[in-house]
């Protein structure tokens, strides 16, 4: 039903009012329109404004009209309007207490009477009653008038019959009313009215919910004796009522199937069971033996959600029992089976339940019980809970400490029988005894280590320093050592492993330990120790409260373990040489710590961290890092000697040896080949501290690694070898990244079913065989050597067919066939091995390329640090060409994503950090000639490039070199000068720049840009040059003016206009050319513009029009400037050319070209003529219409109509009249009707029966062009066919 009909039905009984305020006040009436708007903000604003208006005016007729409109609007057809009217009515009743609630209730019953309303309006009337009761409830006055409460409840009871429309809303409203009234009102007024509903509580979830709410609110009224009379039992939860409760819960679970929420009745029943001390009975009988016996679906989901909601309500003992029971087992099986994408997953809901429980619980024992319970849910050994989980951050320190102890004990002594194994039926059938148990233990330990690492890595977790150190020592000990004998000084030796660690588990421990080192390096100070730091002081990371580094404490712990071999045995014992290197590293760290005590030096802590990190990596790869440790020690010794002998002359022996910085840079490059983010971070920090000492040779060593032309040399092969040694562990590079992959993939991958895994393996094998066969086919011709070998095998067994005999198969006996089969099998197996070897070689080469590129990306870190820290060093100039080579090579080759990342970083360092840096080298010294040669080389290369994007980088490098050569004006020259004089001197200052040579270089480039048809240079490059260096702009401006007419193409001539315009708009250029040179320049530009516009000719092409627009823009600035400055420049020739331009170019009414032209002419006093609007001549248009014959089909394509009826003579005459009157003026008015008449005539039978008026609903949907075609074709056919259509 439409809104208009509803409004008519509402307003029908309204008596006729006199013309008064209600008919005149539009603002007042708009409030009711806004209440029906779909936007909630508009409705709320309307409610506030209506209340304020009624308060201000305080008129009885307006208040009465408001009540009437609001009561009528409760049954509005719009769903969004009903809450608006209900809220407004509630607020009016709350504000104006003089209005009786009983009168409002009577008006609601009368207006929305379900007995008298039409059948179509029953739904709206039901909602009107419901929202009317809600309005009374929202008025907050319901408890003051008990008769109204009774009337509302009775009305809601009558609405319960319309469940198909209102669902459970009436019952919920009754619950809200019960929560508001007092116990006295309930006992005296409502108890008798609700007697039937309370007695039938076990019929529906809503009625049971009503009883539970009444029990919670009025326990004194609903005593056990009263319950005995109502229900037949003094308690709700007992053995007799369990079957009834199960049915109610099943109904509730089905009712919220789409909403995916927990029904409130289930949670209220749980709370009542805890109150009545019958939780055990309810949980075991109603949930485990009742709901879980149903097929998987809503009943199970209700049980799982009830488990999550019950966590904050249960005691420690109840938590342990529930979290180790059947509901948890069924939940685990649901998580395992719901891993497929299309299945419903309840795990995110359970995570939020557990997180809310941990966040709101302050009891450490209950928190621990919850964490242990969910960590005990495993599948094939791996817990279903993700290793990285934010819920851990809510744990209290005591609970976290006990949880870590539980994890460590489970690692040492895996007790799978005490955990809940949620394997699927297929997984249970496929178990293989001992091997399956070993795999389960491995996955469990892997998850435990990931969880311990994630606790340390999460900065939101409240943890003490002792806990962090305890976890780090535990992981380090079991990664590299094993306990032989318990020791009081080494707590880790007291825990005995029930199952020894295998190599796979140790590999996981090693990777996670170095990930832990990185996490501890970024670990902020704890809250207790951080309170003493000032608010504005920088927060320190990677150190303990006493200021020592975390890694230093771990190195000391490792030293204790190495010194007590009788208690702890290293899994890979050090050789004497490696132990000597270890002791030497510790000695160097001790010396560095002494230097820090004497006076803090820059980089000392970075060197300490580098030594300590290399020392820890000795446990992982002792052979690789042995040489690095020796080089590091010698580097530090030489650096200290050089510092001590800084004021003395260097000895010749020391000059022959390489600088210590060069050796240290080589060491850093070697360390960067290690797949560790922590090493990468430390190398960056160390290099940052030694940047002031870096020499040209050290920088060259870094650039050689990045040089694309040296990829195939031996230097890069060393890097590949270093990475290949660690390639088996993680080809992606990062230890801690691998750790996080283990955390995220552990639970998901491990829970796949074994049959699926076997099927996937078979499919993978088939795919590999197909790929090998395709690879063999792609190779083209068959290998001739393989063909010869095959011929030999066949000839040996006489299996080749000759010309005399057709086939040789019949002549071979069984033994010969077996021998032939063996020979062919051996031959093809050998060929398959060769193909596989080729494939492996290609894969190996591809992996090496990936590793080399990854290593180069790391090396770019050092370049970035050097550019940032030493931007003013002359050595930075040596980075220009290598970086340009990288960019040029990278952009000219088809590259993958990793190559693109390398190219992007190199380009970012070059443009944003080198060329655009405000700090640059200002001490060129004797390198002026070298830099000028570099500039010449860059610009020459720039003009020869094919790609404009690469050319942009070369041009930016040229501008950078010009900036370095010019330098900054000396500060002494500015003293004693005025501001204008100092600014003029700054503009003329060119420093060490050879202006003539540099101008010639850029002049050649400008000539190349203007004289070549395809040039990589762009106008924007020269615009940047002119803007940044006005002195060079003055030198090049004359040539740019000449190219306005001498450009090789029209496009270049337009670009020359752009360059000249940008140049003369520059105030600095105007200042440099002030006086006669500026006037002379304006004369030249004026003459060139006049000549250029004379060359324009007929501007039909887009390029020519664009050039004219550019020329006119320059004309506009020139004319404006000459007139403003009153320069002695003759613009009459230019004005004449401009006036004649209208004859050469067809101007439109509007457009960029036309607007620019008239803007120029405005400066010469010529205004744009106004075009008078004239009405179009209808007669001329009508005469032109029939001449338009576009889109007509030729006669040969027209469909020939068969069985055409012969018209009556009168119809033929009428058709002739229509055809003659078609061309008359004014005939188009009746054209539409004539069209319909023609259609009816076409359908009329030959016997002359009268044609009926066509039905408008059955019009044919034709386009406008088709209709015009019909109008023109039919009269022609009538003339030709003699009255036939």
UniProtKB/TrEMBL annotation:
Residues 733-781 have a biased composition (Acidic residues). Residues 722-732, 1171-1181, 1221-1231 have a biased composition (Basic and acidic residues). It is found in: Nucleus. GO terms for molecular function: RNA binding; sequence-specific DNA binding; transcription corepressor activity. Its main location: nucleus. Residues 710-783, 1171-1285 are annotated as: Disordered. Keywords: Nucleus. Belongs to the MYBBP1A family. This is MYB binding protein (P160) 1a. It comes from Sander lucioperca. The gene is mybbp1a.
């Amino acid at each position: 039903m439409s809104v208009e009909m509803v409004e008519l039905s509402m307003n029908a009984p309204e008596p006729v009012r006199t013309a008064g305020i209600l008919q005149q006040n539009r603002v007042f009436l708009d409030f009711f329109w806004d209440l029906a708007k779909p936007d909630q903000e508009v409705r709320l604003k309307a409610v506030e404004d209506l209340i304020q208006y009624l308060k201000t005016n305080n008129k009885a007729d307006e208040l009465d009209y408001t009540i009437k409109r609001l009561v009528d609007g409760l049954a509005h057809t719009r769903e969004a309007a009903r809450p608006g009217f209900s809220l407004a009515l509630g607020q009016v009743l709350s504000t104006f207490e003089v209005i009786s609630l009983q009168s409002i209730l009577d008006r609601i019953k009368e207006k929305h009477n379900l007995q008298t309303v039409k059948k179509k309006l029953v739904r709206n009337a039901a909602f009107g009653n419901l929202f009317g009761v809600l309005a009374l409830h929202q008025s907050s006055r319901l408890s003051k008038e008990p008769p109204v409460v009774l009337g509302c409840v009775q009305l809601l009871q009558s609405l319960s019959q319309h469940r198909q429309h209102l669902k459970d809303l009436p019952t919920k409203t009754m619950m809200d009313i019960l929560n508001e009234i007092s116990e006295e009102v309930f006992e005296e007024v409502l108890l008798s009215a609700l007697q039937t509903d309370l007695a039938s509580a076990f019929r529906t979830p809503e009625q049971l919910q009503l009883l539970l709410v009444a029990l919670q609110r009025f326990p004194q009224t609903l005593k056990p004796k009263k319950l005995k009379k109502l229900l037949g039992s003094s308690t709700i939860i007992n053995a007799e009522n369990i079957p009834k409760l199960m049915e109610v819960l099943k109904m509730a679970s089905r009712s919220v199937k789409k909403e995916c929420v927990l029904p409130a009745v289930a949670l209220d029943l749980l709370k009542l069971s805890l109150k009545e001390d019958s939780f055990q009975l309810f949980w075991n009988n109603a949930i485990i033996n009742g709901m879980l016996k149903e097929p998987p679906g809503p009943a199970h989901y209700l049980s799982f959600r009830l488990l999550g909601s019950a966590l904050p309500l249960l005691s420690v003992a109840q938590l342990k029992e529930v979290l180790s029971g059947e509901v948890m087992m069924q939940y685990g099986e649901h998580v395992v089976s719901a891993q497929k994408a299309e299945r419903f997953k309840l795990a995110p809901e359970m995570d939020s339940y557990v997180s809310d429980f941990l966040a709101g619980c302050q009891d450490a024992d209950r928190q621990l019980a919850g964490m242990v319970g969910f960590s005990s849910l495993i599948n094939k050994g791996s817990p279903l809970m993700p290793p990285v989980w934010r819920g851990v951050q809510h744990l209290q320190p005591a609970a976290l400490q006990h949880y870590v102890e539980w994890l460590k004990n489970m690692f040492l002594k895996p007790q799978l029988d005490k955990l809940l194994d949620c394997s699927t039926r297929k997984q249970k059938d496929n178990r293989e005894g001992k091997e399956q148990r070993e795999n389960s233990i491995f996955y469990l330990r892997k998850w435990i280590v990931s969880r311990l690492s994630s606790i340390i890595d999460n900065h939101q977790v409240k943890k003490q320093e002792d806990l962090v150190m305890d976890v780090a020592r535990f992981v380090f000990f079991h990664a590299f050592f094993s306990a032989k004998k318990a020791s009081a000084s080494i707590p880790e030796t007291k825990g005995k492993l029930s199952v020894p660690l295998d190599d796979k588990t140790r590999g996981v421990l090693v990777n996670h330990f170095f990930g832990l080192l990185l996490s501890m390096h970024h670990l902020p100070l704890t809250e207790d120790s951080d309170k003493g730091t000032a608010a504005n002081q920088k927060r320190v990371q990677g150190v303990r409260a006493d200021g020592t580094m975390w890694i230093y404490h771990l190195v000391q712990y490792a030293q204790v373990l190495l010194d007590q071999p009788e208690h702890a045995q290293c899994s890979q014992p050090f050789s004497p040489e490696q132990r000597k290197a270890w002791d030497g590293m510790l000695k160097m760290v001790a010396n560095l710590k002494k230097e820090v005590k004497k006076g803090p030096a820059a980089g000392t802590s970075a060197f300490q961290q580098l030594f300590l990190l290399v020392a820890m990596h000795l446990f992982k790869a002792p052979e690789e890092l042995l040489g690095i440790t020796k080089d590091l020690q010698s580097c530090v010794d030489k650096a200290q000697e050089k510092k001590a002998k800084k004021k003395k002359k260097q000895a010749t022996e020391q000059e022959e040896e390489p600088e210590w910085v060069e050796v240290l840079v080589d060491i850093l490059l070697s360390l960067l080949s290690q797949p560790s983010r922590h090493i990468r971070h430390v190398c960056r920090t160390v290099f940052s501290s030694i940047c002031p000492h870096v020499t040209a040779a050290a920088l060259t060593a870094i650039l050689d690694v990045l040089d694309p032309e040296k990829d195939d040399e031996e230097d890069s092969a060393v890097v590949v070898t270093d990475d290949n040694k660690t390639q088996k562990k993680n080809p992606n590079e990062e230890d801690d990244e691998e750790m996080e992959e283990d955390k995220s993939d552990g639970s998901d991958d491990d829970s796949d079913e074994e049959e699926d895994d076997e099927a996937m393996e078979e499919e993978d094998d088939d795919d590999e065989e197909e790929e090998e066969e395709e690879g063999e086919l792609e190779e083209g011709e068959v290998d001739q050597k393989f063909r010869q070998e095959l011929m030999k095998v066949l000839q040996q067994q006489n299996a080749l067919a000759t010309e005399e005999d057709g086939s040789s198969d019949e002549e071979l006996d069984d033994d010969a066939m077996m021998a032939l089969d063996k020979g062919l099998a051996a031959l093809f197996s050998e060929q398959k091995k060769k193909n596989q070897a080729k494939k492996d070689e290609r894969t190996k080469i591809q992996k090496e390329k990936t590793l080399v590129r990854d290593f180069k990306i790391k090396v770019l870190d050092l370049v970035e640090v050097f550019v940032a820290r030493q931007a003013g060093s002359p050595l930075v100039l040596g980075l220009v060409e290598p970086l340009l080579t990288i960019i040029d090579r990278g952009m000219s080759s088809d590259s993958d994503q990793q190559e693109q990342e390398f190219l992007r970083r190199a380009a970012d360092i070059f443009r944003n950090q080198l060329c655009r840096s405000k700090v640059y080298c200002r001490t060129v010294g004797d390198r002026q000639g070298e830099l000028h040669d570099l500039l010449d080389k860059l610009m020459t290369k720039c003009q020869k490039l094919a790609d404009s994007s690469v050319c942009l980088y070369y041009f930016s490098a040229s501008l950078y070199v010009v900036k370095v050569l010019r330098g900054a004006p000396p500060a002494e020259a500015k003293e004693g000068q005025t501001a204008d004089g100092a600014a003029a001197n700054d503009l003329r200052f060119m420093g060490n720049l050879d202006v003539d040579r540099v101008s010639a270089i850029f002049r050649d480039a400008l000539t190349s840009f203007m004289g070549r048809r395809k040039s990589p240079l762009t106008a924007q490059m020269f615009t940047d040059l002119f803007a940044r260096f006005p002195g060079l702009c003055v030198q090049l401006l004359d040539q740019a003016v000449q190219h306005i007419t001498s450009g090789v193409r029209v496009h270049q001539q337009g670009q020359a206009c752009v360059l000249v315009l940008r140049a003369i708009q520059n105030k600095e250029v105007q200042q440099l050319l002030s006086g006669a040179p500026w006037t002379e320049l304006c004369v030249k530009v004026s003459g060139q513009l006049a000549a250029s516009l004379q060359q324009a000719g007929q501007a039909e092409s887009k390029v020519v029009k664009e050039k004219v627009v550019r020329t006119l823009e320059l004309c506009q600035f020139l004319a404006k400037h000459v007139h403003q400055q009153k320069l002695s420049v003759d613009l009459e020739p230019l004005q004449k050319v401009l006036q004649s331009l209208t004859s050469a170019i067809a101007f439109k009414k509007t457009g960029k070209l036309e607007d620019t032209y008239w803007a120029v002419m405005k400066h010469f006093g010529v205004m744009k003529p106004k075009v008078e609007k004239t009405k179009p001549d209808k007669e001329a248009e009508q005469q032109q219409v029939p001449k338009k014959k576009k889109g007509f089909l030729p006669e040969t394509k027209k469909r020939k109509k068969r069985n055409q009826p012969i018209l009556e003579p009168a119809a033929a005459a009428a058709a002739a009249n229509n055809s003659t009157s078609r061309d008359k003026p004014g005939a188009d008015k009746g054209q539409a009707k004539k069209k319909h008449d023609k259609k009816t005539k076409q359908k009329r039978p030959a016997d002359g029966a009268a044609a009926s008026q066509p039905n408008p609903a059955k019009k044919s949907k034709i386009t406008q062009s088709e209709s015009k075609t019909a109008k023109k074709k039919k009269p022609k056919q009538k003339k030709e066919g003699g009255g036939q259509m």
